[in-house]
Design brief:
Mean pLDDT: 86
Largest sheet: none
Helix content: 55-70%
Distance between the termini: 74 Å
Length: about 210
């Protein structure tokens, strides 16, 4: 090895090797940086063109570390999306169902909604060709958020806002997701806070028989 090569090797950051059978530790700050970089790449090139090599280069990580921590691209992408979602459904309890749903809308500004809507449209297409992505998405996002929505609805039932036998209860997640995704397809407009609040008051709450004011 030449002297220049030795110097370059000495200057390059070296990630500590984890103990056999254990994952190396990543600080929350470093993890957040990695997830932000993954989302940036995802918006730039899409899921199919995103590679672990590109993530490693963008984040100055080793590909081996990425696979050791996340197993593969699908898990890394889904966890990056989950990390980037604002707040927690279970932490939203305003005392009324309308207040809870409006509070969910208020977690993101219009710019963030537009970016995430475009991101989700791209991922929805990628899921058709990538069963591992579809399964990771279901396991880590859809099922936990659906369960959290059901807990929110259970609180509304316990408060007497909606009936436990309301047939629309099984379709609340579908309605909320539809309002977020379909506006762009029908009106060529991104979802906004004002649109979603109006949609909740005009569609979701009446379907549940819940107060709209």
């Amino acid at each position: 090895m030449s002297e220049a090569s030795k110097g370059a090797a000495a200057a390059a950051p070296v990630e500590p090797a984890p103990a056999p059978g254990r994952r190396s530790r990543i600080t929350p700050e470093r993890e957040a940086q990695l997830y932000a970089a993954v989302l940036d790449l995802l918006r730039e090139v899409g899921y199919d063109a995103l590679t672990m090599d590109a993530v490693a280069a963008r984040t100055r990580s080793s590909k081996a570390t990425l696979y050791r921590q996340w197993g593969g691209k699908a898990e890394l992408v889904v966890k990056a999306i989950r990390h980037g979602k604002p707040g927690d459904l279970d932490g939203t309890d305003t005392g009324s169902l309308r207040g809870d749903l409006h509070a969910l809308v208020a977690r993101e500004d219009d710019c963030g909604m537009e970016q995430n809507s475009a991101l989700m449209r791209g991922l929805a297409m990628a899921m058709h060709a990538n069963p591992d992505l579809r399964q990771a998405f279901r396991d880590q996002l859809i099922e936990p958020e659906t369960a959290a929505f059901h807990r929110m609805l259970r609180r509304a039932i316990d408060r007497g806002e909606i009936r436990a036998d309301c047939p629309a209860l099984d379709f609340v997640v579908h309605m909320m997701a539809g309002g977020f995704v379909v506006r762009t397809l029908i009106e060529d407009q991104p979802p906004t806070r004002d649109f979603l609040r109006s949609y909740i008051d005009a569609v979701v709450l009446p379907a549940l028989g819940a107060p709209t004011s």
